[in-house]
Amino acid sequence: MTPPPAPRLLTALPQVYAAAAVRLALPLLVLPLVASRIGADEFGRLGFILVWAGLLATLVEGGFLAAATRLAVGADAPRRWQLAQQVFTARLALSLPAVLLAVVAVRWVGREAPHAVVDTLSIAALACVLGWPATWYLQATQQLNRWSRVEVLVYALLIAACWAFANSVLAFVLLQFAASALLAVLGWRWLLADLAVEGRGHSLFERAALGPGLRLGWKMLPVSVAGAAYSLALPAAASAQLAKPELGVYFMADRIVRALLAAADPVYSLVYPRIVALFGESSRAALWYAARWAALGSVAGAIAFLAAQLLWPGLEPHIAARAGGIDVQRVHDVAFVLAWLWPLLLGWKFMGYWMLGSGRHDHAYRACVIVGGVAGVTAAATFGGAAGATGLAWTAIGVELLVIVVAVALMGASRLRRVAH
Questions:
Q1: Which of 149, 186, 139 is nearest to 3 (CA)?
Q2: What gap in Å lies between CA 409 and CA 26, rounded to an integer?
Q3: What is the pLDDT of residues 100-117, one digit of tens each?
Q4: Cα–Cα distance, 131 to 140 (Å, whole number)
Q5: Which of these, 94, 130, 224, 251, could form a disulfide with 58 (CB 3.0-4.6 Å)?
Q6: Taking the chain, what is the end-to-end CA distance rounded to the nearest angstrom?
Q7: Which spans in 110-141 are helix H?
């Protein structure tokens, strides 16, 4: 079976946005509900688990969402099967250090004995399942519109289950684990169905594919880990300094803001393969295509920022009634700072994907993300965390601005070197 032809963008968007809407509902509906049930301290503990699990999941993911996608876009079925073996085998190997780092994370923060084992197991288990989806394949073959039906069903069931059963930290973790594991399994089964002829008589695990798989993801793995720093490693690095209620405030504000940013992921997933394909025509065509999307994204982000400020007074009483001890005004103050990311990132990420797809500026893309990640973690572990949740939010804004400045500077330097030669 071969993947169907790529859908038209306007045909695919409604379907992928149905899945994005359900994903957006998870932090907006479920997290305040869980906070009201378990209280501020336990919600801070849950935030600690989810932040570290998400960060370590980038290690398990291995950088393949960027690296394997780019190669799989123009590959034939046998080559895609070879890539699948490399990704699968490498992720098995990368799951082990993620488990070990979960132990280190809990010990570093010094969690009290009653929760240390549960928190460690929770972080390790969630990190592994969150890092395993076959999104790289579905994105490269432009099947995310069809896959979105699966996501809508699974996330809708997760929301309903959380509403009924998420009365503790452990209950929420188990429900999140079940949903994420189901999506990972179904995604790889989808890949196997597409590549049934190439995979007949062969296993996804192939020892000889380990080295090539790790090398394939190696260039983008530091980028993935560093990229996670802006949302996940910042609170993780600051978790030793922030009190649990303050960590809970930052976590809720960050999840709300990042949920809207994540709502644009379906567009990136559809636009990125098209940018890669346009480079076959000319780099100028790819640039103008990315630039048009960047302009639209920035405008959409600015509109969302203004709308959130206008709607907040009406929403605050309803949120406060269900926040379970979370300081709602503090959440608003922190979210107001983080919301500047909307116009900034909804535009910039399209240009970042242009850099990544160019093959000429991908080194600049990797460098700027890594510089931002290192600077962000360092700042969060020192003055950012010490300044509380609001200080950590301003640290996140500064890191993103640093990334953009470094990227532009590196591309300018590269252009000057070409002119000089």
A1: 139
A2: 38
A3: 999 988 887 655 556 888
A4: 17
A5: 224
A6: 49
A7: 113-130, 135-140
